[in-house]
Structure formats: C-alpha cells, structure tokens
Amino acid sequence: MLEDYLPILLQAILAGGFAVVTLLVSVMLGRSAARNKTKDSAYECGMLPIGGDQPRFSVKFYIVAMLFVMFDIEVVFLYPWAVIFKDYVAELGTDIFWWMLSFVGILLVAFAYSWKKGALRWDS
After folding, report:
1. Residue 122 and residue 65: Cα distance in Å, rounded?
2. 21 CA to centre of own chain
3. Which of 49, 70, 78, 114 could form a Cys-Cys staple with 119, CB 3.0–4.6 A?
4. Average pLDDT, integer, range 62-70
5. CA–CA separation, 56 vs 93, rounded Å?
6. pLDDT per position as a tens digit, 13-30
C-alpha cells in the first residue's frame, strides 16, 4: 500500500525542496539595501502616499457580492446534476428530480427573502 503513495510523497518532497532551495538562493544572492523611510513607504501606482485613506466601500457592495457567490454556487451544483440526470433517472426514479427541485426551491426562497429585504436595490 505504501508503494501506491510513493509518487505522491516524492512529488511533495520535490515541491518542498524546490521552495526551500529557491528561497535560500534568493537570500544568498539577493542584495541587501539600507532601509530608510522612503524605501519602507507604500507605493501605489506612482502616487505619493500622502493624504487620507481611501473611501470605504458600502456594506451593500459586500451583501450583493455574497448573494452573487451564493447563487453562483447554485450553478456549480446544478450543472453536474443536469449532465447525469438522464443516466440516473432510470435507477433512482423521479427522486433525483424532486431532490433537485427542493434545492432550487430553497434557493428561490432565499432569493425572494433577499429581494423583499431590499438587498438587491442600489438606490437605498
């Protein structure tokens, strides 16, 4: 059984060894520059780091982003089901259809809830 995992172990050792050797070579051959205030300051696309911070994003942006991810993951689960639906409907009967319909129903309830709460409105 150990023989089956030997290639995986060798690949992990090789990857770890490559990372360690790369870091060591970088430290040994890299130049060390004197640290100063200008060198340690943040650099943002050629603009000097003076003034206040950037304005904050609205919480609404994060809520819409989370809703997008939630409904996007639905497609990740729905696509494989649709691909194998014909093959398994003979074995499992219509149960596979009703399970997926309940999954979509739960997501529709979540969508209706978020719509009713106004999570998808940008004007408020």
Report:
1. 13
2. 30
3. 114
4. 86
5. 52
6. 999 999 999 999 998 888
